[in-house]
Amino acid sequence: MKIFISVDMEGLWGVTSSLQIRRGNTDYERTRKLMTEEVNIVVRALFEEGVSEVLINDSHASMDNVLIEELDERVSLISGNQKPLSMMQGISQDFDGVIFIGYHPRALTEKGIFDHTYSGLSIHNVMINGKPLGEFGLNARLAGYYSVPVIFASGDNVFCQQVIEEAGNIETLTVKNTISRYSAESIPKKALISGYRKGIKKALISRGMLIKEKTPMICRIAFKESVMMEDVLWLEGIKKLNHHEIEFEAEDYEKLYRKFLAVLKLAR
Ligand SMILES: [Zn+2]
Questions:
Q1: In angstroms, what is the span from residue 55 Cα to ligand 1's centroid?
Q2: Residue 211 lies in a domain
Q3: CA distances from 255 to 15, 57, 131, 133, 259 (A)
């Protein structure tokens, strides 16, 4: 069995402050260790349950946070941020399941640690076919396009609730309970390890959920400021809805996802 893991940083165990997730801060170096350790906990649980291959895609900011020298020696790692499929680089129909670790609530969420959707600077919110989606929901649908089910996700309690809203009843692990956008109570480390063990076991038995978006697909994006969409309007097929919102239609989800990433690049 082959498993694909996309790992972000904001939703990891013990992470609550912006000093922890930005390169250049001393705390960031600690967070990279925490990130690598949390990935290793998940990977060990997967191999214990008979998984044969694991690919990790580093999905936070510059996407080169995971310390490969401390990573479980049985897994492969994609790092670097010039990736055509961004947080989902490496996904293909060869996988039997997708896992999201360290994910965070979508933009406009109350009391969610670091709530945002792809860009905290430019994106106000994103809707697919009228439904607000965060990074989890957007990425889960790309896995669905490749016919790979989402089997497990982890993050704060608010994020885990959004997994149900954006996809359905998928196995999750709440690694911290939020108090505000920048504070949370992390569960004991012992519970983190046993939670992953139990959750991964269940996830591999249930085989998760295939999340497919229905056609036609309309992607609607609201920007934080009207100036941010000026360059986006250069792209073909972009419809301006009002002073800060656009939408576009796509015939399949992969095309939608790629266009969404192009919009992100142009939004500034
Ligand atoms: Zn991130």
A1: 18
A2: no
A3: 33, 20, 18, 17, 6
How far does the centroid of ligand 1 lie from the alpha carbon of residue 242, in Å?
A: 29
Do residues 77 and 169 share a domain? yes
d(CA 44, CA 172): 17
CATH code for the domain in which residue 74 is found: 3.40.50.10780
Question: Residue 178 and residue 118: Cα distance in Å, rounded?
Answer: 20
129: in domain: no
* Active site members: 116
Both tokens of 102, joined, read 């360290």
CA of 61 to the centre of ligand 1 (A): 6
Range of 26's domain?
2-120+134-206
Q: What is the pLDDT of residues 54-83, one digit of tens each?
A: 999 999 999 999 999 999 999 999 999 999
Cis ω for the linkage preceding 216 (within 30 of 0)? yes
Distance from the CA of 28 to the center of ligand 1, in angstroms? 12
Please state, rounded to an integer, the average pLDDT across all residues of the chain: 96
- Angle, CA 262 vertex, CA 239 and CA 243 arms, to 5°: 35
The pTM score is 0.97
